[in-house]
Amino acid sequence: MKGSFFLGNGRFEVREKEIPALGAHDVLIRNMAAGVCGTDVHIYHGEEGSAAVTPPVILGHEYAGLVEAVGSEVTAVAAGDHVTVDPNMYCGQCPNCRAGKKQLCERMVAVGVNFDGGFAEHSVVPEGQCFKLAPNLPYEVGAMAEPIACCLHGIDLAEIRPGQRVLVIGGGAIGLIMAQLARLSGAASVVVSEPIEMRRKIAVQVGADGVIDPIHEDVRGRFQELTGRDGAEVVIECVGKPVAVKQAVEAAAPGAMLMLFSVPSVGATYELPLFDIFKKELTIRGSMVNPDTHARAVALLNAGRLQIEPLITHRFPLTEVEGAIKMQMSAESIKVLVKPWGDIK
Fold it and tell me: Which active-site residues does the annotation give?
């Protein structure tokens, strides 16, 4: 099989590799579509992913494919099934795992981060990481199950109540998934703040009640114009930049929940306005990966409850993974996919 190996220092190389022998509980997947994640961008720049990365390794932890073969004791899936992969694996023994917080596992590892993943023609993963997709669901859409699962964990922590007004800061793929999940959670109105016009248009297409251009408009003032509410009761930040966190704090209504969902650069800081947090009685939360939410993400996709195809803007072959990562960093894209077998949906 061919795989695009990350060699470190921003370098990739397509190499031939023997398909690993299947263990009794392993599944061989023909990788059909793999998303480029912000985590891949961080790894490309030499930063840590959800776990430390040791090159050479095949990245790609958001992907879907076709089961080609299974180990002798596999019962969860069978050859011919369409599946998505939950990449994250936990030790089950550390204090966090034992406390029911496995997303904070001290020894968490992930397919496509620590083990070869989706940027290859095939992958071998434990059956417990595989979730069945509806056979008529496009692989490209199925590849988005992992980011949707992560968003679901953030949505759970945001504790949106029916009738609340929600502001999503950032109209990339994550922000546009969050906006849709906020509506499904019962938000009375969902507004997306995003400087790029193309993304604002897609935000409206997938159900946002209003959009804000934070470069040319006052975010809080425009939010009030759109919703009649002076400040959002829930703010979900999906950018990862200090300026976005500043906007989130400023746009939060008294008593609001601030979900800082994005993956910032290591060492990124923001000076908290402590009196504002005190006076508004704000709650600030982070969110880490997707503990026990992957099945729910697949259920939403299989039921057609989310608009995913409008978010997919670019596709690259296996030979151009570096180009795919650079495009994901660009203002031209929303979601970029790598297609190891060509443009098969």
Answer: 39, 42
Is 33:63 a contact under the CB 8 Å cutoff? yes
Phi, psi of 11 (to 5 degrees): -110, 140
Q: Averaged over 269-281, what is the pLDDT?
A: 94
**Residue 334 DSSP one-character state:** S
Quote the DSSP letter at residue 63. Answer: E
- Is residue 36 scored above 70 in pLDDT? yes
Beta-bridge partners for 85: 130
Sorted by sequence, the CB contacts under 8 Å of residue 251 that are 6+ apart come out as: 167, 169, 193, 219, 220, 223, 231, 232, 235
Please count the residues of the chain: 345
pTM of this prediction exceeds 0.85: yes
Helix (H, G, I), strand (E, B) or coil at 51: coil
Is a pLDDT exceeding 70 seen at residue 271? yes
CA dist., res. 311 & res. 295, Å (int): 21
